[in-house]
Design brief:
Layout: E1 32-34, E2 41-43, H1 83-86, E3 98-99, E4 108-111, E5 133-138, E6 149-152, E7 167-177, E8 182-188, E9 196-202, E10 210-216, E11 223-229, E12 234-243
Antiparallel strand pairs: 1-2, 3-6, 4-5, 5-12, 6-11, 7-10, 7-12, 8-9, 8-11
Length: 244
């Protein structure tokens, strides 16, 4: 047995803005949600966002049966999918989302660490464990520069048909690797087009999940599109989508 010497040290540990919201004596207003057990008062935008903002999971507990109907209003009419049907954490497949049949390659549903060294998350965002699922793309060979992988939402009703209530779309993404290129979100109102660019991210964002919220208005029914443009030897990911 060898003898090894070494020193490990930590100093000046500080937590800032890390605690849960304190209990509130009241929580009134259409834009507020009162947590069941912790009694914290949080923004309704945090309800059903796939994160336990209350500390007791009450803001995430009824999302399938009653997804934001009391808090953000339902911007969808009966001829279109409800908000709960548009939400997806990829634990049971792609939900109502779909792979584009006209792109160059597909997204892959995966658990745990990604196959390529020094890329990707160790675990998913929703469960925070290696058992959780997420979608990712592998853009090393045989994929080529400017090939595309496209993920399509179902058709969503025009917001103008619902008193112009804004559609709120949130997702978590992970972009980590040596040569990350681009993840883009589009809104399209006509098939076989890419539509309007809503948001785009470039480059390595570090080995962490990031949250993005987009506010969408449309005078016509529309789809949301995730589009990946690869560069070289990297992977890019998206997980936990919700349209509310």
């Amino acid at each position: 047995m060898g003898l090894y010497e070494g020193v490990s040290a930590i100093d000046d540990i500080v937590f800032e803005n890390c605690s849960l919201p304190p209990p509130a004596s009241s929580c009134k207003g259409p834009d507020q949600f009162w947590c069941t057990d912790t009694r914290a008062c949080i923004s309704s935008l945090l309800v059903c966002d796939l994160i336990d903002d209350c500390g007791d999971m009450s803001d995430e507990s009824n999302c399938i049966k009653k997804f934001l109907l009391e808090f953000l209003f339902n911007v969808f009419n009966p001829y279109f999918l409800s908000a709960s049907e548009l939400q997806c954490d990829f634990e049971d497949g792609l939900c109502n989302w779909a792979q584009d049949t006209e792109d160059d390659f597909d997204w892959t549903r995966h658990q745990g660490q990604t196959p390529t060294l020094d890329t990707g998350p160790m675990k998913d965002h929703t469960l925070g464990t290696v058992r959780g699922h997420y979608l990712y793309i592998e853009t090393s060979e045989p994929q080529m520069y400017r090939n595309q992988a496209i993920l399509l939402s179902p058709e969503i009703d025009a917001t103008i048909n619902n008193d112009n209530k804004t559609c709120i779309f949130l997702f978590h993404y992970h972009m980590f690797g040596s040569q990350i290129y681009s993840l883009a979100i589009y809104k399209r109102t006509m098939r076989n087009t890419r539509g309007q660019l809503l948001w785009q991210a470039f480059g390595n964002k570090g080995n962490r999940w990031l949250k993005k919220v987009l506010y969408i208005n449309s005078t016509y029914p529309f789809q949301v599109i995730f589009c990946i443009f690869p560069f070289n030897n990297h992977v890019t990911y998206v997980v936990s989508t919700a349209v509310v």
